[in-house]
Design a protein that fits this description.
The chain is of the alpha+beta class. It is built from nine helices and 31 strands. The protein folds into four domains: about 190 residues, Glutaredoxin (3-Layer(aba) Sandwich); about 90 residues, no CATH class; about 130 residues, Jelly Rolls (Sandwich), CATH 2.60.120.230; about 130 residues, Jelly Rolls (Sandwich), CATH 2.60.120.230. The protein is globular.
């Protein structure tokens, strides 16, 4: 039986009487083609399955207990009818479910059929979907032939070992046999799909009073001249001329870019827009994007041109220009810089700056101490100081934390260039800020690299796993998963000496275009003997639009068309090395 507290919740809030505004779309109605993104933001259309005689559309969400109970049933039915040409699709139209959680939910339950996100509920409205789970069976002409519940196994007050009525199966069997569906419509039992209700803004919203401060807080760091944003958002005209694309990016949760599952970990550099600010910006756009009184506008936010860390104490530049040819494949280029440090120095902030973003794929700057030939040590440590890749943030440490550069060290720039069709020139740089006194905590960088990675051809979901054991008590500051274009998700799980397990970071929809370091709000205390399991997944199938060649077996390698499972982590050992 379903627990009484769950029954009370469903009865009181989860399953109110039908008072929804959208009309029910009856069996016999035709569904037009639609396009929605799947859990990896790949566009899927109904017409993608035009060769399928039947399509079963199931409306799901991540919170509804009954919807989650029915996921295994839908998976079993998908497997039973796949060879008969029946295509299953899941659609999440629930406003409370962020995209990243929809992606994680589908992967955690290993749902084998596409799960799509209906951000604006347009497809839910086209079906007249009211609840989760609610299913629709479409025939070859994409006419609704059945709508309603899956079966009667799970209800508000009971769970049966087996269903006594199987309306969805009956509909599929009848249609495959060319017969009339015995019951074309049943009452769906589940949780209401809350419709997005636009309410009038509280008073007049204006750019000068409400939106300019919001953009300063959340957007202008990247959306200004010389930064990674494709356009500037420093002025009213900047945003007024782009309200359509900004609105779409907000609705689809593409901006600001942030890919961590919010259920796991709290991060200093979380770029998500707070819900209140997001709703305010959308309301302002929908209300006409009024300018307002210039006297209400805050003073411009001051930036140091070219640097996110502010004005560096010292800037180190590659010793010479590097000329990038118009085409071809370049090995990683390495350049040595002598910073001239006569004594140990401590770094509290560091930032790499590409000289030519058009051809610089990424930059890593390492510290090579006197006599050190390679930045990588056998124990997995790497003497990395800072890095840059699209979406990455600079290295920043709180007071009392820092990175040591020993006296006499050299800086090694490692730059990956990607020719873009015309000859180019680059001279990248590193800016640093020095700690005023020796920090209490010395930060170390470790790299977890699975160099035995192997992706068989044509495989849509290949798992890679690496386990690292902490040799001593430590404070963990950050994690950064790095995969290439076939990578689709990343996760770090800590298993503590007492047997407890905890997910420290989950990136369900990994995007190679955004190389983010995830910095914890508070350093995590990791006891000696803890095992950190770093799990990645790759899609080496033709279904992956980023895949350079799905017929190729792929191994770990430096170039983008190779693959990687690298995991950077910053930590502080609480005791001296033994």
């Amino acid at each position: 039986m379903i627990p009484l507290v769950l029954t009370a919740w469903l009865t009181a809030g989860g399953l109110p009487t039908r008072t929804e505004e959208k009309p029910i779309v009856p069996p016999g109605a035709k569904i037009a083609n639609f396009t929605l993104p799947d859990i990896h933001r790949r566009p899927r259309t109904l017409d993608d399955y035009k060769d399928k005689p039947l399509v079963v559309v199931a409306f799901l969400d991540t919170e509804c207990p009954l919807a989650n109970l029915y996921v295994p049933t839908l998976i079993e039915l998908h497997q039973r009818y796949a060879d008969k040409g029946v295509q299953f699709l899941g659609i999440n139209a629930s406003r409370q479910d962020p995209f990243v959680i929809v992606s994680a939910h589908a992967q955690e339950r290993e749902i084998p059929f596409p799960v799509l996100k209906d951000f604006e509920q347009k497809v839910a409205d086209a079906f007249g979907a009211k609840r989760t789970p609610e299913v629709f069976v479409l025939d070859a002409a994409r006419v609704i032939r059945y709508r309603g519940r899956i079966d009667d196994q799970y209800t508000l007050s009971a769970r049966r070992a087996q269903p006594t009525k199987t309306e969805l199966v009956d509909a599929i069997e009848a249609l495959l046999a060319g017969k009339t569906v015995p019951a074309a419509e049943t009452e769906a039992v589940g949780c209401v799909i809350e419709r997005v209700k636009k309410s009038p803004p509280p008073g007049e919203l204006t750019y000068t009073k409400h939106i300019a401060p919001l953009l300063q807080r959340h957007c202008q760091e990247c959306h200004r001249p010389g930064e990674i944003g494709p356009f500037s958002l420093l002025t009213y005209d900047d945003i007024k001329n782009r309200t359509g694309r900004i609105r779409e990016a907000l609705i689809e949760e593409r901006m600001p870019p942030w890919h961590a599952d919010p259920r796991h970990g709290r991060f200093l550099n979380d770029r998500r827009l707070p819900p209140a600010d997001r709703e305010l910006l959308l309301a302002w756009i929908d209300a006409g994007a009024a300018r307002g009184d210039e006297n209400d506008r805050p003073p411009p936010r001051q930036f140091v041109d070219g640097w996110k860390i502010g004005q560096p104490d010292q800037i180190f530049t590659m010793p010479k220009d590097f000329h990038v040819p118009a085409s071809g494949v370049l090995d990683y280029q390495r350049f040595m810089v002598d910073p001239g440090f006569k004594e140990d120095v401590w770094i509290e902030a560091a930032e790499c700056r590409p000289g030519n973003r058009a051809v610089v794929h990424h930059i890593l700057v390492y510290v090579l101490a006197p006599g050190q030939l390679t930045p990588y040590a056998p124990d997995g440590t790497a003497s990395m100081l800072a890095g840059w890749a699209p979406g990455d943030m600079p290295t920043l440490y709180a007071p009392g934390w820092g990175k040591r550069i020993p006296a006499g060290s050299r800086l090694q720039f490692e730059v990956h260039y990607t020719p873009n069709g015309t000859p180019q020139t680059d001279r990248s740089a590193l800016g640093v800020k020095f700690a005023q006194k020796k920090p209490q905590h010395e930060v170390e960088v470790n790299i977890l690299a699975n160099m035995r990675l192997r992706l068989p051809p044509q495989q849509p979901r290949v798992k890679g796993e690496l386990v690292y054991t902490f040799r001593d008590d430590a404070l963990l500051l950050s994690l950064m998963p790095h995969l290439h274009v076939r990578g689709i998700s990343a996760k770090y799980i800590a298993t503590y000496p007492d047997g407890r397990s905890e997910t420290l970071l989950s990136v369900p929809d990994y995007d190679f275009n955004w190389q983010s370091v995830y910095r914890f709000q508070e350093p995590l205390k990791i006891p000696k003997g803890t095992k950190l399991t770093w799990i990645g997944y790759w899609d080496n199938s033709p279904d992956n639009p980023r895949n350079p060649d799905p017929t190729k077996e792929v191994f770990w390698g430096l170039q983008t068309w190779d693959e990687m499972q690298n995991g950077w982590m910053e930590l502080v050992w609480l005791h001296k090395k033994k």
